[in-house]
Amino acid sequence: MLVPIVPHVTEELWQLLGHQNLASDMSWPEFDPAIASEEEMTIVVQINGKLRSRMTVPVDESEEKIKADALADEKIKSMTAGMQIKKVIYVPKKLVNIVVTLSES
């Protein structure tokens, strides 16, 4: 891919690697969507809109499972202890926001 930019250097390097043909005669790499696709994604976990944690989940994970994993996170559990969870908002492939208020005792 450097041949158009620095052809002389790339031809020399190509020969040093043991190739007999010219680097400029080689075909361009083909795009393979299977290689480019991600298997996991990082989800941000917020409490009342403030970043509190991150978690890595499979791309095809269900919304309910992601919400449950966010609520089961030890860091999130400790921060929501003694608070009432009003709502859990999931923005697909981006974040989980847990809306809490102080528990009425």
Description:
The termini are far apart. The chain contains 4 helices and 4 strands; from the N terminus they run ααββααββ. Helix content is 30%, strand content 32%. A 4-stranded mixed beta sheet has the order 2-1-4-3, covered by helices on one side. It has 2 domains: 7-36, no CATH class; 40-102, Ubiquitin-like (UB roll) (Roll). By secondary structure, it is α+β, with helices and mostly antiparallel strands.
Please name the CATH topology of the largest domain.
Ubiquitin-like (UB roll)
Radius of gyration: 25 Å
Characterize the biggest β-sheet: 4 strands, mixed
Mean pLDDT: 91
Shape: rod-shaped
In terms of quaternary structure, the protein is single chain
Report the uncertain regions: none
CATH architecture annotation of the largest domain = Roll
User: N-to-C terminal Cα separation, in Å?
Assistant: 66 Å
Helix content: 25-40%
| Total beta strands | 4
Strand content: 25-35%
Q: Order of strands in the sheet with the most strands?
A: 2-1-4-3
Helix/strand/pairing category: alpha+beta
Q: Give the CATH level 1 class of the largest domain.
A: Alpha Beta
Instruction: Domain count, please report it.
Output: 2
Taken in chain order, the helices and strands follow as: HHEEHHEE
Count of DSSP helices?
4
